[in-house]
UniProtKB/TrEMBL annotation:
Similarity field: Belongs to the TRAFAC class translation factor GTPase superfamily. Classic translation factor GTPase family. EF-Tu/EF-1A subfamily.
Keywords: GTP-binding, Nucleotide-binding
Pfam family, one: GTP_EFTU
Sequence ranges of Gly residues compositional bias: 121-137
Extent of Basic and acidic residues compositional bias: 33-69
Protein name in UniProt: Tr-type G domain-containing protein
Amino acid sequence: MSRHRSVRNRQYSYDYDDDYYDEEEDLASSYDENAHRLQLQREREELERRRGEEQRRREEGEARGRAEEELVASVTSMGFARAAVERALADTHARLSKPGSFGDAGDPAFQERLLERLTDGAGGEADGAGGAAGGASRGASGLSVLVASGPAGPAALPFSSSPPRKGGWADPPRGGPAAAAGTPPKRSSVVDLFSPAAPPPAQARPAQALPAPPPSKRSSLPAKGSHVLFGASALDAADDAASSGLSRLSLIVLGHVDHGKSTLAGRLLYARKKVDERTLRKHEQSCAAIGKASFQFAWVMDTAEGERERGVTMEVGTAQVDTERHKLTLLDAPGHQDFVPQVIAGLSCADAAVLVVSAKTLTDSNQGEFERGFIRDGQTTEHVLLGKGLGINQIVVAVNKMDQAMEGERGFSRARFEEICRTMTPYLAKKGFNVAKKVQFIPVSGLTGENVETVSPGCPLSSWYSGPTLLQAIDALTPTPKDREKSMRAIVTDAYAERSGVAARVRVVRGELRIGETVAIMPMGDVATVGRIVVPSTGAIGTSSDAKRLVVLPGDAAELYLPNVDVARVARGFVLTHSREDLRISVRRRFTAKIIVLDNIGTPIIKGSELVMHMTAMECPVVLYKLVKTFKGKEVLAERPRILTSGSTAEVKVVTKRGLCVETFKEARALGRFVLRRGTQTVAMGVIDTLLADDGKAEAANAA
Ligand SMILES: Nc1nc2c(ncn2[C@@H]2O[C@H](COP(=O)(O)OP(=O)(O)OP(=O)(O)O)[C@@H](O)[C@H]2O)c(=O)[nH]1
């Protein structure tokens, strides 16, 4: 039988020889792989589509937020205490079945409750000048005739019938003071959000008729790309680390697929009260409904629908949480090998890592989950290497799923924990980590919560473990010093068209970024004035009127509006800098770098090797056009080597396919370190030593 027979025909042939079987298996497995890749491709497309939807929802949320801001401003100007109004709004949202959804705004029940909360809450807490709220009445246009009788006499809220702006980026709120001064009601967007239909008339309500509003139970966790919209306190949140005495730390959660990263991250947020019971119960029900019970904590971080349906993280999720010592930015990385570029982007922003390894023992195999991640192509090992290569020196190894580390009938096996520590310790040491000082092993269960913040007395863990909890281990991490003083660098991680400009997601890696600042978008060099800033992790929002107040600091992600910029001229990996020529980042195609070639790369790297460089959020084909030398410590092993084999350390000259925004590692760590990949294999990691001029000979002066 021919070995080249088509697989489609194989059901008709009964005389396969051994080779044919081999071929068939190969083909079958390559079919599986292709099917798998196609599936992932489809899922990515689906994720894109859903991102679009999320974006639309976010914009609607923002429009609604602006309307609420106007409402707050208006009511405050009538003598209601701002805090009471904000709480009333938050409480109303929390009571609705779909908090934050745009559709509920037109719900008469929403209006009803809002009225109740406003009149009641404000009546109880109005500040001295404003006095008690007198009452409210509703007429044909719903909230538009809400009346308060304070010292200034009855006043009408300034609502309008003009459509809300979809843009998501708007001018500062208007209207409140005018209403207080008795100016005729100025129409704004609020009526479209709150009152599309005419609700029945209602009687004025005495302020004391309802009990005081309970504190809002709404979770303060922002979803990927969403924000909390309540004004001044949120604005300050962007820069409150110093005042609160907490240090800012970006912590990435790494590890093999399904080892429990998102669950543990969600549990951390829960332990620090960033997620409330109600949200968790809702997740629990929704997870169970799609047959994914036990994912409720993971859903706290995995907010995209595609991720939830599949139970796989695809993008780095971000959340902000305070521990005893740190103002923590938690970055939940995907574990699947197809999402390594996302991990690289996340790592370029991180100070330290929690490496999650599962201790779960498997009865149907003599391997456990840990061993599956700790093989050559496992993500435990790849994430360790990427972390080390991209500047991570401190690691907390969270030995997770201890509840399923079985010893006989019982979980929390000490022997299993120690076995994992024994395997990981020499490996991490070999990869260059200072295991004695910078690595901690913590047994934990993200699902049951054991040893995240405490250990329950009845837990088997308490009989043999008395070391730190996960949160204590995180508190022992030291933040890397932030270059706040140097000129600003902000990496673009996403960009899309928005009205007449661009909405760009950025991460500041050096210096400070402020509203109203004129920035250069490099490498294109277009100049724009930052019109609006949103810091999703804190909920802070600023417009040009808050210019002095909102500062985005190194480590923070933010969304900016850049007016009058063509979206085709902004892309992932671009860098925003100050616009002054001498403060811009250099755009280079050539540089010298020190690289470490990874173990087991197979084909060695030779002079002229074409690889793909991943740096921050971008990737670019490069050629290693000169192998300068190999070395070990300070000792040079070979000048102009012909090849670089696994494990070697070398100085090389690199030329990139296009001009890139790069810095030396010394100048800006995030913009001076990179990973080299060949296909889907990571083959080397490096740092930029010197920037070279285009002829590759004369050395160019490095950027300021
Ligand atoms: N028994 C047990 N199950 C856990 C624990 N932590 C996570 N799991 C389960 O492991 C599965 C995967 O959890 P995730 O948190 O999604 O894992 P992940 O590492 O974030 O997955 P990816 O991001 O897709 O790589 C879910 O079914 C979780 O309920 C744990 O401590 N104990």
